[in-house]
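Hi all, long-time lurker, first post. I run a small reading group and we've been trying to get comfortable going from sequence to structure in the token notation. Rather than ask abstract questions, I figured I'd post a concrete chain and ask someone more experienced to write out its structure so we can walk through it together at our next meeting. Sequence below, copied exactly:
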Amino acid sequence: MELSVIFMFSGTLLFLATSPTNAQAASPPAPILPPTPAPAPAPIPPYVNLTDLLSVAGPFHTFLNYLESTKVIDTFQNQANNTEEGITIFVPKDSAFSSLKKPSLSNLTQDQLKQVILFHALPHYYSLSDFKNLSQLSPVSTFAGAGEFALNFTDVSGTVHLDSGWSKTKVSSSVHSTDPVAIYQVDKVLLPEAIFGTDIPPTPAPTPAPEISPAADSPSSELTREGHAPGIAPPNSAYRISNLGIWIQMVLAVSGVLVLFL
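-- Answer (accepted) --
Happy to help. Here is the structure in token form:
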């Protein structure tokens, strides 16, 4: 219902109109927001090439050659780039391998050599600061397995020491330590007790070459027709001479007797 009121003020007509009683104030329109952008994908970590890292550092040529000949490089490479755990590798320098006297890696089978190389890595990324807590969890399983293929760690004034049960060494420098790959240089080759704690049959020594007998035509070996060397009497020569003397004496005795009867 709409009501109208008319007032007259000094000749001026004023008209007031009321709005409907049930009318409501109009609300302003809601603002239009732009669409929310999709979240950016997480950056893909760069591919870590272990061969390149070990080729420019070190020198680690001997260890790298063992990695490639045993195909362990493929295992380590996959762990470094295709897992969330990462990898920690302990790499001996070339001089550490050349200083090995006994036992020698050359006496190992191919499977044993592969276990030794796997023994130099942990299936997880550890920074140097992590080893202080890791020493309380020793022994730590390596890629070669647990038990006799585990490593013991101790932190001595910030220096990481490793004990394989057969050999002891320490981390001398950090080659690469960026998650997910940590590579540390060690002073000695890590020898697992599972292999070197038992008697490994040594490689048999080569059979000595037979001595070559003197030439058949040499003077020292030349034989006479009678079967003895020239200038050397045969074993029965003295016996023959003795018998001849007896016969001569008998002949002389008989001759003397005949002379007496004549």
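A couple of things your group might point at:
The beta strands are 4-9, 12-17, 87-92, 121-122, 140-142, 145-156, 159-163, 168-178, 181-186.
The longest strand covers residues 145-156.
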